[in-house]
Amino acid sequence: MQDAQTLVMQYLEVFYETDTDRGRELVEALFAPDCTYTDPHVDLQGPEQIEGFIEQTEERFPGFMFKLGRPIDAHQNQARFQWPAGPADASDAYVGFDVIVTEDGRIRNVYGFMDAAPAA
C-alpha cells in the first residue's frame, strides 16, 4: 500500500480544494476508476459521482477544513482514520471516521461514518 499517511492526507485535501479543475485532477489521480464511496447519506460509484459529492459538500459547507484527527491505523491495503471538520472558529463541528481500501496505490473503496455533528 502506498504510504497511508500520504494517501489519507491527499484524500482530505480533495475535500477543501476550491479550484474545480484541480479538484477533478486530484479525484482522478486518487480514486480507482471503479471506486465506491459509502457513508450514512450517500452510496456512490465512480470518480465522477465522488467528485460531484465533494463539490456539493464544498457548496454546503464553504470554508470548512478537513483535518486528520488521530493517527492513522493501517495494514495490508486498508486504513482507518478520524477527521474533524468545520470553519476556522469551530474546526471540530463535525467529526467522522473513514476506512479506505486501496488497490494499486489508489483508493478503491471509502466507508464513512459520522461520530459527531451539531444538533439540527
The ordered string of helix (H) and strand (E) elements is HHEEHEEEEE
Q: Characterize the biggest β-sheet.
A: 7 strands, mixed
Which structural category do the helix and sheet elements fall into? alpha+beta
Shape estimate: globular
Poorly predicted regions: none
Quaternary: single chain
Q: What is the count of helical runs?
A: 3
Mean pLDDT rating: 93
Beta-sheet strand percentage?
35-45%
- In CATH, the architecture is Roll
CATH class call: Alpha Beta
CATH topology: Nuclear Transport Factor 2, Chain: A
Record field, number of beta strands = 7
Would you give an account of this structure?
By secondary structure, the protein is α+β, with helices and mostly antiparallel strands. The chain has a single domain (4-116), classed as Roll (Nuclear Transport Factor 2, Chain: A). The protein has three helices and seven strands, in the order ααββαβββββ. It is globular and about 40 Å long. The model has no long low-confidence stretch (mean pLDDT 93).
Summarize the structure.
By secondary structure, this protein is an alpha+beta fold. It is 30% helix and 38% strand.
Entry keywords:
seven-stranded mixed sheet, single chain, alpha+beta, 120 residues, 3 helices
Would you spell out the secondary-structure blueprint of this structure?
Blueprint: H1 4-14, H2 20-30, E1 31-38, E2 43-45, H3 47-60, E3 65-66, E4 73-75, E5 78-86, E6 94-103, E7 106-116
Parallel strand pairs: 1-7
Antiparallel strand pairs: 1-2, 3-5, 4-5, 5-6, 6-7
Helix pairs in contact: 1-2, 2-3
